[in-house]
Specification:
Elements: H1 4-11, H2 18-22, H3 24-29, E1 38-41, E2 44-47, H4 51-63, E3 69-72, E4 88-89, H5 96-103, H6 105-126, E5 140-144, H7 147-162, E6 170-172, H8 174-180, E7 188-192, E8 196-197, H9 200-213, E9 217-219, E10 226-228, E11 233-237, E12 240-244, E13 246-249, E14 266-275, H10 279-284, E15 292-295, E16 301-305, E17 311-321, H11 335-348, E18 357-367, E19 374-377, E20 383-387, H12 396-408, H13 419-422, H14 433-453, H15 460-471
Parallel strand pairs: 1-12, 2-3, 2-13, 3-9, 5-15, 13-20
Antiparallel strand pairs: 4-8, 5-7, 6-7, 10-11, 11-12, 14-17, 14-18, 15-16, 16-17, 19-20
The chain binds flavin-adenine dinucleotide (FAD).
Flavin-adenine dinucleotide binds near residues 81 and 394.
């Protein structure tokens, strides 16, 4: 049962994250990036000032310091998903079983190793002197909370064993999970040593500072309103235009309405909450470390602590955006999705008692059919784009920055040859079947998962519908 206070917190969900509010003062002290006015020629225009756009700018500047780069951001850097996420940073080891099925063992291992390179690079940046992005690194844990999750743990262990890397996925008994945090809901887990947590809005701000320091020109409050493609591309904003041979579209969910991308991208949403500080309760449940934790649901719960003793809990079960559009208010404020995040908090961490929830927020996420991001160059033009993080982008946006930089510079290197840039993309069904199908399947999966957690039997219809994406070769869901 959801309490009145929790119901009110869910009703107050909106697009603004707790992280964003926490950085208000820092942002007010940061250098101002004026809107674009007039027309100018540069080498590269990056559209979008989230992690993808900012890491791309940094990668390009590292490789070719003399490049003249301008970045256009519709609002403020970090105001999209990059400033709203759970801040769980991990690569692809915890996706290895499904990656092996999708790509084969060698390519799956390449993807996982690219995630490790990203993790190393993000750590190196986040722990530089003078940078305070609340980086804490105690690994990543997936926990089982229903009987069907036991099979998923077996799948992890057998995959890692078959690949000869059994030391990288450690099976945890309920007692071993309890040594990290005690929860009556947990029946086991898997531990991956690669994993960290971060303050995502502070990370975005730090990346913005670094881009400015390296000489990238950033124009905020400068939406791209039109892109004229040609040998020289023209990116128009309300008060100006940038001309460049290369343009990078790092606009995340907005790419879901792009003609070339829309078949491969659809929009779901994710909901997160932040509690008030609860240091004594965290101590009582023995949660001393800083693991990023997710359960093994399809529409999973993700959670972590903050250094000041709060808990962030999220649920990747928000509504679907019709035709890839992001103007549906339910993507940002939806009572039922917000309540699922709150139930996750109360059921998974009952020792927190009735600790107050200070903020609940929702935001759209960019889903690829196989839940892996992709980075491509548009046919005939030097327009590059990257998206499809599928709710798992804090680590992967670094990979995105490197891949996009390789595409801009025409480099046939390590990054450009990863499956992120080379695999054949599968497509979602066309509209309206896509949204109708996604909504029906989402509803069925939620029914099945809820039934499992309350020891009921899901209906045959729900089970059948929930099994359809797998039968169609899609890895749908979130994160
Ligand atoms: C609630 C939530 C929780 C999540 N939790 C996690 C997590 O714990 N771990 C994890 O790994 N991932 C998580 N993610 C996913 C992760 O946040 C994203 O994958 C990642 O931030 C994507 O970065 P991006 O730069 O591609 O997109 P964004 O951060 O959305 O950046 C895109 C930018 O483009 C700008 N833009 C759009 N259109 C235009 C235009 N026309 N002109 C100019 N600018 C434009 C936007 O304003 C925005 O700033 C979560 C996502 C959400 C929503």
């Amino acid at each position: 049962m959801v309490s009145v206070a929790d119901r009110n917190a869910a009703a107050a969900s909106d697009p603004v994250s707790w992280w964003w509010l926490e950085t208000e003062k820092l942002r007010s002290q940061a250098p101002v990036c004026l809107p674009l006015s007039g027309e100018r020629q540069v080498d590269v225009v990056i559209v979008g000032g989230g992690f993808t756009g900012l890491w791309t700018a940094l990668a390009l500047k590292e490789r070719q310091p003399c490049l003249n780069i301008a970045l256009l951001e519709e609002h403020t850097c970090g105001s999209g998903a990059s400033g709203k996420n759970g801040g769980n940073v991990s690569g692809y080891w915890s996706s290895l079983p499904s990656l092996v099925r999708l790509l084969g063992a060698d390519a799956a291992l390449n993807v996982a190793k690219a995630g490790t390179r990203a993790q190393d690079a993000i750590r190196a940046f986040a722990t530089r002197p003078g940078i305070d992005v609340w980086w804490r690194e105690d690994g990543n844990m997936r926990i089982a909370t229903a009987a069907s999750h036991d099979e998923k743990i077996d799948d992890y262990i057998s995959t890692f064993t078959a690949l000869g890397i059994s030391n990288m996925a450690i099976r945890l008994t309920p007692e071993q999970v309890a040594e990290r945090f005690r929860s009556p809901a947990v029946r086991g887990g898997v531990y991956f040593s690669e994993g960290a947590i971060v303050h995502p809005a502070r990370l975005a701000l730090a990346l913005r500072d670094e881009a400015l320091r390296l000489g990238v020109t950033i124009h905020e409050h400068s939406p791209m309103v039109r892109l004229d493609c040609g040998d020289v591309n023209r990116v128009r904003t309300p008060a100006g235009a940038l001309l460049a041979r290369d343009v990078v579209l790092a606009t995340n969910v907005k790419l879901a309405t792009d003609v070339e991308v829309s078949a491969n991208l659809c929009v779901f949403s994710s909901y997160a909450l932040m509690t008030a500080p609860a240091t004594a309760e965290l101590e009582a449940m023995g949660w001393a470390g800083n693991e990023g934790i997710t359960d093994l649901r399809m529409f999973l719960h993700y959670f972590r602590k903050t250094p000041d003793g709060r808990v962030l809990m999220g649920s990747g079960s928000g509504p679907v955006g019709y035709k890839g559009r992001v103007d549906n208010p339910q993507l940002y404020s939806d009572q039922a999705s917000a309540e699922r995040a709150i139930s996750g908090l109360r059921n998974l961490l009952p020792t927190l008692g009735t600790v107050a929830i200070e903020k609940v927020w929702g935001a759209p996420i960019d889903m690829a059919p196989d839940r892996l991001p992709f980075f491509r160059t548009r046919q005939h033009y030097r327009i590059h784009y990257g998206c499809g993080y599928s709710g798992h982008g804090v680590n992967a946006t670094y990979i995105g920055g490197q891949c996009l930089a390789s595409l801009v510079l025409n480099e046939n290197d390590y990054w450009a040859n990863l499956p992120f840039c080379t695999r054949k993309l599968s497509a979602f069904p066309p509209e309206p079947w896509r949204t109708l199908g996604a909504r029906t399947v989402r509803h069925a999966i939620l029914n099945c998962e809820e039934a499992e957690h309350t020891s009921r039997h899901p209906s045959i219809t729900s089970r059948f519908i929930a099994s359809l994406p797998a039968k169609l070769g899609l890895r749908l869901g979130t994160r």
